[in-house]
Amino acid sequence: xxxxxxxxxxxxxxxxxxxxxxxxxxxxxxxxxxxxxxxxxxxxxxxxxxxxxxxxxxxxxxxxxxxxxxxxxxxxxxxxxxxxxxxxxxxxxxxxxxxxxxxxxxxxxxxxxxxxxxxxxxxxxxxxxxxxxxxxxxxxxxxxxxxxxxxxxxxx
Length: 156
Fold this sequence. Notes:
The chain is α/β, with parallel strands linked by helices and 156 residues long. Helix content is 33%, strand content 19%.
């Protein structure tokens, strides 16, 4: 049996946040850099990585079982890990959004649909979990696909 020893240690304090984002491989390094360096989480956060990221929490009419599971997982972390900060991140060119029926949104433009979902979800989460600080971000590359990624705060 192979065994690997790593230098990383277990986190001993409560997580600084719960983060929900998409699993798109193009953005993973940018997500980690943003969370650890720019938001100062230093690797101390719970993480839900799901296709479409936070959009999974909005699928009540279209995919109710997906929505139910996503809400269940979110509630689990919030209630069992003493979460006080929730960070939701959407990203440019999300393949998941391309698979969704257009009638679910008021706009056919993907970014507007993503931002609409994030804002509605932010309102719902603040109502259901008034103790949470909810942060909404959109990650986009500037220039071409190989460019740097920037994170835009949708609400502050």
